[in-house]
Amino acid sequence: MATGYLEILRARHATRLLVGTLVGRLPNATAAIAIVLFVRAEGGTYSLAGALAAVYGVANAVGQPVLGRLVDLRGQPRVQLPAAVLSALAMAVFAFAGTNSLAVAYAAVAAAGLFTPPLEGGLRALWSSVLPKEEQVHRAYAMDAVAQEVMFTVGPLLVTVCVSLWSAQGALLVVNGIGVLGALSVVVSPPSRAWRSAPREAHWLGALRSSGLLALLGAFLAVGGAMGSIAVAAVSYADEHGGDHVYGWLMAGIGLGALIGGTAYGARQWTGEPTRRLQVLVALLAVCYLPLMLMLMPGPVTMTLLTVVAGLFLAPAIACAFVLVDRHAPRGTVTEAFSWLVTTFTVGASVGTGLTGPVVEAGGTLWGFAVPGLAGGVGLLVLLATGRVLAVPAGRAVVAARSENDPNRALEPRFSSGDRA
After folding, report:
1. 278 CB contacts (<8 Å, ≥6 apart)?
2. Among candidate residues 271, 276, 269, 225, the one with its CA nearest the CA of residue 390
3. Cα angle, residue 338 at apex, residues 349 and 175 outer, rounded to 5°
4. Long-range contact list for 73-78, CB < 8 A, 24+ apart?
5. pLDDT at 354
6. In which band, very low, low, confident or very high, does the pLDDT at 419 lie, cut at 50, 70 and 90?
7. Helix 314-328 × helix 119-130 angle, to 10°
8. What pLDDT was estimated at residue 198?
9. Average pLDDT of 300-314?
10. How far apart are alpha carbons 310 and 373 in whole angstroms?
11. Nearest partner of 332 among 229, 225, 420, judged by Cα
12. Most distant CA atoms of the chain, gap in Å
């Protein structure tokens, strides 16, 4: 297992791109908690804090595919770095202006979310130009998914430490300043500067021209809903079993499960059709949510162990989805396609959060934990219903993702020359 990951990290530029992307995404990973802590320090209400965090999230969901398309058209350095600077400047305006003017506060967080650079999609577009083998690219996708879970676990902790040592305002400024440095590290690297998207046909739908990509987005809207819903149900459980520290353990359990599952998934060289594999992974993901409800509210220790199980198949499912996104993204739209997956997952999480609140109020914590399993089941049904769309007939499968950055290769067999986008 270690040998496979070390092989990737030893590849030229690989470690720099991975670390730079993670650091560059720190502002996005910590935005919600940083905004909430800052508004609370300013004397604002939790309702205002939640509304501002929601505005950031919506703006981020809108901006990711738009900026992703610009990256495909203009290259990474010309889009990623200016976007990172604008996002950081907008958050600095919010940090210095505070909540005295609500119009300024809302505009600032909206701009910060809108200009968040699509570093996540950009990294996945770069892996194929850094790693020579297809199985290495697939393993890098798994490592990327695991690193993402670590960042979303460690990032909020870093913010709380910064707040305790300095201030909530300082945390906003420091985190976003670090994010700019991370983006800078990526875009000045040779792979990022050399990367060019494949030629594309102009079309207003861009990556959304692909029916296979649309099927994936529908499935991961539901998977994102499962993640958003489990967070709300966990809050309700923690309120009944010990408070905030129990909630922290439950969320850490989800992250640990994803870390274990993603690491094990990436260590193996997978063969066979990824569509079928994704169906199995999402089915297992849905099934592993059910014990959270069926155990009839066990104690915190047992519940934490169950959340570890619930997180086991999240990172593998995301990593497998990356392979399919690369397969179904129309030629010349790979960054935009990956950004659409990020956006859809985020929107799904928001929808899941919104739906689970009323469920918990009406039926209690037990039924709140039923929502993740139901959402995972919906995602599975979408994958099963669109299996023929997602599957690539034998003889037309894409060999490797590296095609986006290889001007000398033949046309991708999945598209005819008239279908290139």
Report:
1. 317, 320, 321, 324, 383, 390
2. 276
3. 65
4. 73/197, 75/193, 75/195, 75/196, 75/197, 76/122, 76/126, 76/186, 76/187, 76/192, 76/193, 76/195, 77/187, 77/188, 77/192, 77/193
5. 75
6. very low
7. 70
8. 67
9. 90
10. 10
11. 420
12. 62
Distance CA 329, CA 198 (A): 11
Q: What is the pLDDT of residue 244?
A: 62
Mean pLDDT within 130-153:
80
- For 116, the token pair is 């968040």
By mean pLDDT, which of 61-70, 154-163, 340-349 is the weakest?
154-163
**pLDDT band at 395; cut points 50, 70, 90:** very low
d(CA 238, CA 227): 17
At 403 the pLDDT is 44
Helix ranges, 75-210 (H) = 77-97, 102-114, 119-130, 134-165, 168-187, 190-194
What proportion of the chain, given as a percentage, has pLDDT over 70? 89
Element containing residue 381 per DSSP (H, E): helix 370-385
Which residue, 166, 164, 167, is CA-closest to 98? 167
